[in-house]
Amino acid sequence: MKIKPRTGFALALILAVVLVLSACGSKEENANNAGNAGNAPANNAAAGGDASLDSLKGKKIALIMQFNQGTFSAQYVDGVKKQIEKFGGKVTVLASDNDLNKMVTNLDTAVNQKYDGILIDHGSADALTNGVNKAIAAKIPVVAFDSGLSVEAVTSLAQNDQLLAEKSLEALKKDSGGKGNIVKVWVAGFPPMETRQITYAEFLKNNPDIKEISQFGDANQAQLDAQTRMEAVLKQYPEKGSITAVWAAWDEFAKGVTNAIKQAGRTEIKVYGIDLSDEDLALIQDPASPWVASAGADPSSIGQVQVRYLYQKLHGDQTDATVQIEPVFVSRDALPTDKKITTAELGEYVKGWGTSEQGNTDYLKALEQSVGK
């Protein structure tokens, strides 16, 4: 069939336009595909892909501590350090020698030196809130432990201090038959011990046959001070049976009073403590020791959990405002008599003790594996 020249020209023009439009469409599609390909790593990063893991490596973390004494603190710091190393980061510990003014200065230093993240151990809200707000304004994430902080964007970890006190006091009540004279060792000004004191006061109110005959406590050189003060109390009450038990709101206090009681030969007096470390466990296992039980959480695990929540923040996650670490109760009766154990083995004998998965995520597990390679 013949096509007239004018008709042929029109068809050729239409065909050219179609080809141009097709080419433009192909270019636009290719550009969109290229854009999507460019966004893929970002999407993977949000889901915890390789780009996200790489961005979490090499972080510089500051650990601001109110005090760093005793085996509980040592094991807590060890947990923090090991977890940060597993994530490919590095931690600097800034201890404050139980001086809140120095702790405030250490916090300001960490902010000014632009650390990637800040961990806080103890302290008080009054002293630390301004410095923490500076960190948040500088986009430095903060996770605190036992500090009493209530600042938006900060995750605060705490042991269940009420339950810690309840578990240790109920054991004292059971062993004493609900009556007797007791000594309390604690110190004000620390959020966890303030909470434990509330539980203790309620306990005395509900158990009128249990009488407090003395109380003392000093956070500076806590173990030595507790030993010296307990020695004085033992001289004040020299008759056997005049003191039934000691309730210590911190394991450093428990170690001090235990030493005083052993040296005086007054092991009819039983000691009940809070917090637990390898050194504490050895004393509880010793059949000649007056320290018979303690409530606590694995200090190393606490450090690990705190680091995980900080890295969740570094990843851009929304984290809970408060996280509670559930404690366990450890008594001599639950421990082996034929060998000495450490807290690393304690989970074999006491349910609930040991490595915690709290705060862990799939991408943090992948980060550990990536760093390990």
TrEMBL record:
GO terms for molecular function: carbohydrate binding. It comes from the Bacteria. Keywords: Signal. Residues 1-22 form the signal peptide. SUPFAM superfamilies: Periplasmic binding protein-like I. It is found in: Cell envelope. Residues 61-317 form the Periplasmic binding protein domain. GO terms for cellular component: outer membrane-bounded periplasmic space. Pfam families: Peripla_BP_4. Belongs to the bacterial solute-binding protein 2 family. PANTHER family: ABC TRANSPORTER PERIPLASMIC-BINDING PROTEIN YPHF, D-XYLOSE-BINDING PERIPLASMIC PROTEIN. This is Substrate-binding domain-containing protein.
